[in-house]
Structures are given as C-alpha cells and as structure tokens.
Design goal:
Blueprint: H1 12-29, E1 40-44, E2 49-52, H2 61-67, E3 71-74, H3 75-83, E4 93-95, H4 96-101, H5 114-119, E5 129-131, E6 134-139, E7 148-154, H6 155-162, E8 171-175, E9 179-186, E10 197-203, E11 209-217, H7 221-231, H8 240-244, E12 254-256, E13 274-276, H9 284-310, E14 318-321, H10 328-338, E15 342-344, H11 350-362, H12 369-375, E16 380-382, H13 388-405, H14 408-417
C-alpha cells in the first residue's frame, strides 16, 4: 500500500503578518480602537506546526530544544506567543483541542504523554503549556495593547462550539475544501473502532473537558474547483448547482474523489478517484451532479461510523456551515441521504464565532452556556423528502464505487516495479 504523500508548507511569519493586518482592518471597520474590545479569541488550522527560536540561535539545535530555547507549537501557540509580547515574555501555551490533535496529549490527564514524547524523542521543555479553551492567556501588545487573549480552539472544535453543540449527540459538519464532522460525546472520550478520531471538544476554564468523535473528508469543495480548473465544465464554482440541476439525477454516475486516497472512515491511501457508471447518455450535468452527491455520501459514511462507535442510531439534526452550505441542491440531497434534518445558522463563520464565544466566556462578557444557547437559532432548514428505496439504492451504488477505488495506487506501483 502506498503511504500518504500530501504535505504542505506554510510561512509562519506570513501568517502572523496576515493576522496583524486582519486585526488592523477589523478595528478600522468598527471605527474604534482596541480599548473597545472585551477579549480576543483565536482559532487555527489544526495540526499545522512550527518550531522557532525566541532568541538568536546557534547551530546546536538539539541542545537548544532540550533547554527550551527552541519552542514548538501549533499555529495558535505561535500567534498567542507573538500577540502577547513574543520574546519579551510572550505566553507559550496551547489549548486542549489543539494539543489533542498533535496526538501527543493524553486524553485522560490532558497532559503531554511522556511515553509518546520519549518514543518520538521530543524534548518536553520546547512544548507549550496545555491550558483550557476559555481562559485569559495574557494581554495583547501592539494593536491589541491591553486586550485579554482569552479563547483558543482548533478550527473544527471552534465550529462545533460556535454551533452551540454543547450536549452529547449534537453534531456539526463544516463544508470547505474538505468536510469536517464532529459530534459531541460528553465528558468521557469514546474510543473509535470505525475509522474516526477521538478528540477533545473543549474545556472551559477549570471545568472538565468534553470530548468528540472527529471525521475528516479530504475532497469536497475542492472537487468543484477540479471540475472548473481540470475539466473546464464550469467557468465558476457558483455555476455547478445550475449545471447539476440541468439533469433530474446523476444518471447512475458515481464520482469517488479519492485524489490522494480516502480519509475517514476508510483510511485507504491506495485509493484513487474513479468516475463509474458512465454510459453514452451521461453528460457534464450528470458528472456535476455526481460530484455534489459525492460530498453528501462521504458525510453519510462519517455519520454511519459515528453511529457504529456509539452502538446506537444518532439523534437529532446535523448542523452545517462553510461555503458549500450556499448550495441548496447539495444541502437538500444531504438531508435526503442522511434521513434527518440539516440546519444552517445565520452566521456562516461559526469557527470565528466559536473562538469569540470562548473568549467572551473567559472575561464574563457572556454569563455561561445558557446565554449562548438562548442566542442560537436556525436560518435555513432542509428536511428529508427522498423515497426510502431511492435512498438505499443511491447509498449502495456509492459504496460500489468506493470499493472500485481501492487498490489503484498499489496496482500502479506494482506495475512500475515490473
């Protein structure tokens, strides 16, 4: 089986510059200054890490790391350190959600796991202090002079929090370049045996941590970009819904976008993309519709894995956010395939909202979760309307396509070796 080969590199200084520009722009937009801000929360792309030196470095990197003279963290850690004075006493911290996604934190103790650090030869002094998701980490400097930096969550955890999913069984899915689904499981971690990741949902101040099951799909919105850039069947991503509506259904076409393997719940790095079920009848409209349906079917697979881990049918509705929520056809099909309501909030940027909620709670801007629950409301709602036999046939057809995507990279590698 081929290994995962998808790696990206970011410029940490560029990220910091963009954040500072965003801060300046936001303050200018409200026509005020930092003194009007109650607190600031941070949300970040999970699992992106950076190592930096807080002082002039030598060539003795390993020794520096052991002394704590090299610092490690996810992007939230880098930003909080910089926004709270940096080398002049910046806070070197992370929160439990980001720490859990490094896979180096013990989910029970909420501390760095000594055995894992030893196994990977990671010096403990270079790691940040693990804090809660909602507390004051330090005071800002520069544009944020005196403002408490008080909220910190990984992006998908922040979206879960911003969707007011505070109770076990509540779940959300964010639709972007990929799809990211989290379900709150309460105050105990639920080990996954069906291809998901057990993670921390959040921790508020000194309260107990709450946990979630986490599933990630690699290709959803980026598939629409692929239709535009690689196939040229649309000129703009916004055109895909109209093209998909030009046909009554996908015409039995199945599109499995396993461009670099399949993520949760399959975890098959040997899978590659397939378009199956083509006949002379198929048009670009059928391909566009199958591409949208692929997103809904992949989210369905995540839901089924979560239900299997809990050994019970999932309760309630699916809360949704992200750019693809604007696609009415997709959201209705998602509701149909799940057989449950799909609900979108009025504020699309639930990741930013969740970070703001965490920061506001830390400084008393909001009194507690009940106040946040009272503010929660739905903006759009989709109810299932598909015939059960059509739903079952579509799911079976999708799984047939998924099975045909397996083993492709392995067979190509074998052919190359021959």
């Amino acid at each position: 089986m081929s290994g995962w080969r998808s790696l990206s590199e970011h410029d940490a200084e560029e990220i910091l510059d963009r954040v500072r520009a965003c801060i300046r722009g936001a303050i200018a937009q409200i026509g005020a200054d930092a003194r009007t801000l109650a607190a600031v929360g941070i949300s970040n792309q999970r699992e992106t890490t950076v190592v930096w030196s807080p002082s002039p470095a030598t060539s003795e990197r390993r020794a520096e790391a052991a002394r704590g003279d090299l610092l490690f963290g996810t992007i939230d850690t880098w930003l909080i350190w910089q926004l709270t004075s940096g080398p002049d006493g910046g806070a070197h911290v992370t929160d439990v959600t980001n720490a859990s996604r490094t896979m180096l934190m013990d989910l029970g103790t909420l501390a760095w796991d000594r055995e894992l650090l030893a196994a990977f030869n990671i010096p403990r002094p270079m790691l940040p202090q693990i804090r809660s998701s909602s507390e004051i980490y330090g005071s800002g400097v520069g544009e944020l002079a005196g403002v408490p930096i008080a909220g910190d969550l990984g992006d998908q955890h922040a979206a879960l929090f911003g969707q007011a999913c505070f109770e076990p069984g509540q779940m959300k899915c964010t639709y972007g370049t990929g799809a990211f689904m989290l379900m709150h499981t309460g105050d105990r971690p639920v080990p996954s045996r069906h291809g998901l990741i057990t993670t921390v949902a959040a921790r508020l101040d000194r309260g107990p941590a709450t946990y979630a099951l986490d599933g990630s799909v690699a290709v959803t919105g980026s598939l629409i970009g692929w239709l535009r850039d690689n196939l040229g069947i649309i000129g703009d991503a916004r055109e895909v819904e109209a093209l998909a509506r030009s046909v009554p259904d996908s015409g039995d076409v199945v599109f499995v976008p396993a461009f670099s393997g399949l993520f949760a719940p399959h975890w098959r790095s040997d899978a590659r993309g397939v378009i199956a079920g083509l006949t002379a009848y198929a048009t670009r409209g059928h391909i566009a519709r199958a591409a949208l349906e692929a997103t809904a079917y992949q989210v369905y697979d995540l839901c089924e894995a979560m239900a299997a881990d809990l050994a019970t049918p999932l309760p309630g509705e699916l809360r949704v956010d992200g750019g693809m929520v604007a696609n009415e056809l997709l959201m209705q099909f998602q509701s149909d395939i799940l057989g449950r309501a799909v609900v979108a909030p009025p504020i699309a940027e639930t990741t930013a909202l969740g970070a703001a909620y965490a920061a506001g709670l830390a400084v008393g801007f909001w009194a507690g979760l009940d106040e946040l629950r009272a503010m929660d409301r739905a903006d759009r709602r989709w109810e299932p309307s598909m015939d059960e036999s059509a739903r079952a046939a579509g799911i079976a057809r999708w799984h047939k396509g998924v099975e045909r995507s397996f083993g492709w990279a392995e067979s190509l590698d074998h052919a190359t070796r021959l």
